[in-house]
Amino acid sequence: MKHQTLIALLLLPLFAAMTGCNHSTPTDDMSNEEILQVLDIKIHKNPKDDNLYYDRAKIYLDLNRVNDAIADLSRAVSINNKEFKYQMLLGDAYFANGNVEKSYQSLQRALELEPESQEAFLKLGEIAYYSRDYDRAMENLSKVTAHDPQNRTALFMKGFIYKETGDTSNAIILLRKVCDLHPDYAPAFEELGMLYADHHDPLAVEYLNTALRLEPNNTNALYGLAMFYQNLNQPEKAEELYKQILDINANHKEAWHNRGYIQLFTYGDYPLAIEHLTRAIQCDSNFIEAWTNRGCAYELLGDNKHAREDFMAALLIDHTFQPAIDGLDRIK
Fold first, then answer.
1. How far apart are CA 179 and CA 183, in angstroms?
2. Which string of DSSP letters, residue by residue, matches 91-156?
3. Which of 96, 208, 270, 329 could be cross-linked to 225 through a Cys-Cys bond (beta carbons 3.0 to 4.6 Å apart)?
4. Domain boundaries of the chain, sorted by first residue
5. Residue 260, SS3?
6. CATH hierarchy code of domain 252-332
7. CATH number of the domain at 35-115, please?
8. Which residues fall within 8 angstroms of residue 102, CB to CB, at 6 or more apart?
9. What does the pLDDT read at residue 24?
10. How many whole angstroms from its chain centre is CA 85?
11. Over residues 179-195, mean pLDDT
């Protein structure tokens, strides 16, 4: 009898914890795993509560358990197919899983529930934008900007699409509009700076420096500025910026490559060029330009054996790469 009583006393805290968990509500101080435990118990007790599946799906997405999120959202929709937010989140989950068409379908169902939803149009535009389906993206983003002409996300994506499709004039107009309306939005200054840099326009410096003021560790803006100076034959400024990039990201292959390129073709320091280009190759063994330029450095040092090896390595990556073919022809 005493033995049974002792067991009962030992189990009492466990039963109490389980009972408390059954009736608890997720709180902000709980971890995702703890919230899942609470929701598992609630769903076990209330298997027809669609909102519980939705809540658990949000946690699954936070934990990158995308298939579990899709399964829960599908259950929620099967119980209640009139809930806008279920279809919206299901669109996110399908996109995270790489299923673009099912993502579109879910968002279209969301629009059937709320035909004027700017959130749904924006999400459709975003998915098309990231999928590089620019016509579909423009169609949906234009619906957003027609309703909200100052919408930062839609304006930025439309400007980026114009840039990608070669419509420089409209790209500049929209990106400048974003910069004017949202002066703390670094990506717009970065993209506009890159656009000006591509055209060797000194305005690139102003916009890229603004992006860097907003985000000092923005390696894309630093790289764009470095390339701008390199293309203007100002290697000292470019070199300093490449060093800054490598202080932030020691595996930035383009920064290593361009430092090697400067040493090779501007200063004629072939051993240092080889050192930098080797670092670029270590960052990416398929970096065909780095292999080819290191081959050139060896060639200029008179080391045809290593030059040939590097040109051959480049051609193993792409047998049609003309600079490597030309390199081999020179050292025959």
1. 5
2. HHHHHHTT-HHHHHHHHHHHHHHSTT-HHHHHHHHHHHHHTT-HHHHHHHHHHHHHH-TT-HHHHH
3. 208
4. 35-115, 252-332
5. helix
6. 1.25.40.10
7. 1.25.40.10
8. 94
9. 64
10. 25
11. 97
